[in-house]
Amino acid sequence: MSRTLTVAAAQLGPIQRAEGRNSAIARMVRLMERAQARGAELVVFPELALTTFFPRHYLENRAEADLWFETSLPSNETAPLFDAARRLNLSFHLGYAERTPDGHHYNTAVLVNPAGQIMLKYRKVHLPGHAEFDPKRAVQHLEKRYFEVGNLGFPVIRAPLGHLDGVNTGMMICNDRRWPESWRVLGLQSVELVMLGYNTPSLNQAASGFEAPHLRVFHSHLSIQAGAYQNATFAVAVAKAGTEDGNELFGHSIIVNPQGEIIAQATTWDDELIVADCNLEQCQLGRTTIFAFDKHRRPEAYTAITAQTGAADPPVWTPG
Ligand code: ING
Fold it and tell me: How many A from CA of 177 to the centre of ligand 1?
């Protein structure tokens, strides 16, 4: 039996700091129209898709950063996305900066159906970088300054997507993909499709040691392919790419199947659509054999994973 969903990864090119949301949203609507023309039923946009990657900019007064946050969704500015979803009969995933009515700030993603209902929301758990200005860094990465740690866990829902009655759908955001715990919590909820957006600098800016540039994309793909394979799920990983105010983000968006194979890949660092047919039945092989969690996992051996935060030093071996 085939449960095939046609999915589009809508990679975005750069959004400059001076650009308003309207130009990015107009680009996104054009990508939705192209996705629909290519038979897609779901469009996945990147992390923080409405603005430049503002955590690279230090603002002494954090309240000034609120200009990059959405206080409601939809809003006048984001309404065109919801209108396009309805007009084109598309569901879409959107990454954006969320400011809640009671003043909390999250790096958030939502899944919206053609009727404009928000079916799933996720708030980024793994916030990389730092909270204060770091003079050693070539470029700042202030996600710990502008966002709070997500408080929704890693939820999975079974929801209608496209012509399918139910798809087990989950999300993560950018740095989350580097942590196997993110994938496994979704896998333990029988996820079939993981959507994730990212904004990842193409050069290491931490100035904490040499990292060959080609490893940037390698590490991203390694994390996503391993996560998909080890949890028998599809993954749609979508970049915001290109050079934003002189700072380069890599593209290379990919769609990965439950065997860990890349089945579609972007080749530019600009607005680009990649589309793939995802037969969700392909999740069954891994899920019923090598990764049949109920048959093979041994949680009693994994207690360190939730008991500890940092790594401990091991006991030192001595003769006798
Ligand atoms: N960006 C980067 C990411 O995790 C990063 C930050 C890059 C951390 C490379 C470690 C190594 O892809 C975001 N936005 O999380």
Answer: 9
Q: Between the CA atoms of 202, 206, 210 and 215, what dihedral angle is there, to the nearest 10 degrees?
A: -30
Atom of ligand 1 nearest to the CA of 141: 6
Under the banding of pLDDT at 50, 70 and 90, the label for residue 4 is very high
HEC secondary structure over 112-177: ECCCCCEEEEEECCCCCCCCCCCCCCCCCCCHHHHCCCCCCCCCEEEEEECCEEEEEEEEEEHHHH
Residues with active-site annotation = 47, 124, 174
pTM of the model: 0.97
State which ligand 1 atom lies nearest to the alpha carbon of 124: 15
Q: What is the pLDDT of residue 205?
A: 79
Give the domains, in start order, of the chain with CATH numbers. 4-307 (3.60.110.10)
Average pLDDT over every residue of 80-102:
98
Token reading at 144? 């710990």
How would residue 181 be classed by pLDDT, with cut points 50, 70 and 90? very high
Residue 207 reports pLDDT greater than 80 = no
- Whole-number Å distance between alpha carbons of 294 and 299: 10
What is the CA(98)–ligand 1 centre distance, in A? 19
218 pLDDT higher than 80: yes
Our answer on whether the CB atom of 128 is closer than 6 Å to any ligand 1 atom is yes
Q: What is the pLDDT of residues 105-149, one digit of tens each?
A: 999 999 999 999 999 999 999 999 999 999 999 899 999 999 999
Ligand 1 lined by 198 (C-beta under 6 Å): yes
Distance 221 CA to ligand 1 centre (A): 13
Is the shortest distance between the CB of 174 and ligand 1 below 6 Å?
yes
Residue 1 CB contacts under 8 Å (≥ 6 apart), including other chains: 281
